[in-house]
Fold this sequence. Notes:
The structure holds four protein chains of four kinds. Chain A is mainly alpha-helical. Chain A has a single domain (5-95), classed as Helix Hairpins, CATH 1.10.287. Chain A has three helices and no strands. Chain C has two domains: 2-34, no CATH class; 44-240, no CATH class. The longest helix of chain C has 25 residues, at 198-222.
Amino acid sequence: MALSPSLLYGLTGLMLFVIGLAALFTSPQLLGKILAVNIMASGIFLFLITLAHGSGTLIDPVPQAMVLTGIVVSVSSTAVALALLCRIEAAARPPAHLPKKKDEARQG
Amino acid sequence: MNLSPDSSAWIIWPVVVPLLGAVVCFLYKKKPRLAGHFFAVVTCGTSTVLGWQVLSQGVGRHLLGGWSPPLGISLRADGPAALMVMMTAVTGLGITLYSGGYFQSRLAGDSQDHRFRAQEQSFWPLWLLLWAALNGLFLSGDIFNIYISLELVALSSVGLTVLSGKPPSLVAAMRYLLVSLLGSLTFLLGVGFFYKAHGTLELAVISKALAPTPPVIMALALVSVGLMLKTALFPFHFWLPPAHANALAPVSAILSALVIKGSWYLFYRFWQGGGLLAAVGIVPALLGSVAIIWGAFQAFSQQRLKMLVAYSTVAQIGYLFVAFPLLVDSAGQGRDALFYFAISHSCAKAAMFLAAGTFFLQLGHDRIRDLAGVRQLLPVSSFAFALGGVSLMGLPPSGGFIAKYLLVSKAISQDLWWLALIAVVGSGLTAVYVFRAVSSVLSPHLLEERPLLVVAASMQWSALALALLAIVLGIMAPLPLALLEVT
Amino acid sequence: MVNSGRKRVSPAHRPWLLLVLLLLFFAALAWVYLVPGSVPGGLARQVDASLVASGVSSRVTAVLLNFRAYDTLLECFILLLGVMVVWSLRSAGTTEPRQPAVGAILAALERLLLPLMILVAGYLLWAGSSQAGGAFQAGAILGGAGVLLLLDSSPFLDILPKKALVWGITLAPLFFLAVGVAALTQGRPFLTYRFQEASLVIVALEVAAAFSIGLCLATLFAGRLPEYESEPAQDKFAAKRGE
Amino acid sequence: MVVTAFDMLLCLTLVWLAWHVLASRDLFRAVVLFISFGMLMALGWVRLRAPDLALAEAAIGSGLTGALFLSALRKLAGTTKEKRRLDRDEER
């Protein structure tokens, strides 16, 4: 079977998904994990787009619309994740006028 | 409104009303509680109309934008979907009434009310948006639309989890968010493979035509793993207890009673076609069995009441999956058992979490060994907690009993003895940890002095109403079962 | 990070095991992806057949704002939800000091770029009905312009009355709901447009969506809730207390 | 369409970049690499005849998400600079 560009990009997308998955498990830092989720999402988007080239010369607009929606969803969740990360870091840092409870930050 | 020629409009209202409510609560910050209650009641009303319509007229279908699938998106209201919408409506109304009292009590009890006011202002729009997303999830007939609804559910749940602002709840919410995103993305990849295999996004077509070709198997596996992550089935349960136990009291109830049901329901939707069920239906059942045992042991060894209730959710999720091999034949009793577990767990668990939240607010802690005497102080909540426990254990005449009865009798008729055994053993284990909590709550320890009651009456009575409903579900079983027959 | 609280011990100790498992997973995905089978084809033909009835000539826009407009409605709500959660995180949390000005180069860039960006956004919006472009891209560019302004510590989100900001963010969701409910009251399914009005409604929805998306994105970047900035010390204290 | 050397190069670069984004211990470098990753992604989408997406990816996926990451990094740098240095010292 001849490798068409869409297949090549599809495989790349799947590879990106797997790389992101690996980093999500191994990354020691939360920011790294959020980056990993973003890379996974990009991989899936690339994969979805190649489905638009399924048959013949017509390009299917439905996967393209799906990806556009997906990009907006992903930026929204990234913003939430980053805001949460900043909040966690701020809470872990003891405010100057309050003694830090040691075990509090480690729970959960 | 005039009598509309499109008679299926009642399907969309349970989604539109809470969406509108969320925006109104977001815009109208002065009295979000009032707007929240109003829209919760209206949502409950439209959901009841939906349930009644399905019961009397059969399956309904609403073609959004007037385009029929595969081009457009359709909403489909059949028996199971209507039952889940009704479950969300009833439990949601109880939680809404509780939340009103909860925020009122906290605002009255603390002079530092700026933070509490901000919490409440965020709570109402998030809760209504979550409600809308759940209803959208139950009714949606399009798998990409389901992905968006799942993301809405996940983000609003995370938003609700972080409201308490405590560091443990923040860390738990972060883990919850990452797991949720992983689950959604896995689901989305599965959606891609389904689209590749079938050329359509319509759920009804996809779940019927589960021919075991490689792309379909891969798609189903990805979708299932994504949904199991979100439902917190056994090996993926690690994120649930801290997230559920550290949230605000009404939020714990929302997460445990309703949110996990959304992804579980989708799991059922994808598997209900049955093609692959005979071959691999045993996998969710085995994971569910381990979850029942493991969750019960973990629940027993907890020191905090809310953690105990949260681990009990891990165990009860096991029951939601254990009956999947019973779905193979079309008699429908396996399905009835599954859905009965879902609705009775929803009422019982909401009641227990709400009662535990009441104890927490009154006492300032939820250490199980120091709960003695709370019965005297909060008799209604204590009774609600105990009644919820009765339904979890599956004692007659509760809804939990009906569910276990259906499960065991169906398993025996299919010669799946181990499954029946697991259900019975699970009941025993549930009894052990429920007794541990209930004996502490109900212990006849007399208080020397009666502290001032800081919790509103509506907090106690709404929990009791839900607990009573969990019991009554056993007596009025014919009604939900009749609704389930509409497919 | 100590406080991340989710160090996974086993994969870190056995990276090779993880790597092998993931490679196997990739091999399975790739095999399934490449396996030749009956390709049913997507929905390209159906989209083309209904394109005339949709009211726009761009196929992606037709899918986004007509055939699958319900998805886009929910997507607007996801952005709104993102703003809600970020604000609730910030309102109860600590407040950061205002970022310092970035410098002369950025200011010059900004003078040059801002009008250009707004122009491009308008063009994309206009082009969306026939070619590449549309509400999202225009909204993104508007959001980018907002971010640029914020980087130069122009406090336009703070100067903007809180009410106006909140209404601007909810404009697209509300408008979508209104269009949907209007169809319901006239006896048509949710979000159905009448044929003669379709292109007008879609353009109006696109403008509203671009505006709200741009504002939401800029707000997500700013992340501040202007209202609560005055009580930082007390807030910090309150955040540390129990439930 | 046939696979050109450009396609091959682009795909390999994407994978290489993703690997380095995620393997990098220096978060600032990771974020900068992520932004360039997004830009290359947009290029790939042009190649896949999806110019709509190329625009959206360049603007949102790469530009705005990158800006979000950078601003988060700047906020974090204030709170955890010392802690991270301590962590790094511990690793050595």
